[in-house]
Design goal:
The chain has five helices and no strands. α3 (42-49) packs across α4. By secondary structure, the protein is mainly alpha-helical. 11% of the residues are buried. The protein starts with a helix and ends with a helix.
Length: 79
Amino acid sequence: MRTALLARSFARIVEKNDLRSVHVHDLRHTAASLLKKFGVAPRDAMEILGHSRISVIMEISTVRGESQVPTLNAHRTAC
């Protein structure tokens, strides 16, 4: 699927379900933060996310503060 088509489809899903503004790329950053939070080794996270340099995963996974990353238990409680 082309990147632009995916982005448009995702934007329609967000709008249709009245979700806060979020982009597909934001999910990648969230995934990096969650991988770090759950103790995945940086080298493994780098491979999972498809980064070519470990420095990229180290920078991205520290962008969000710990309080901004939802815990697995909080998610389960909300469901």
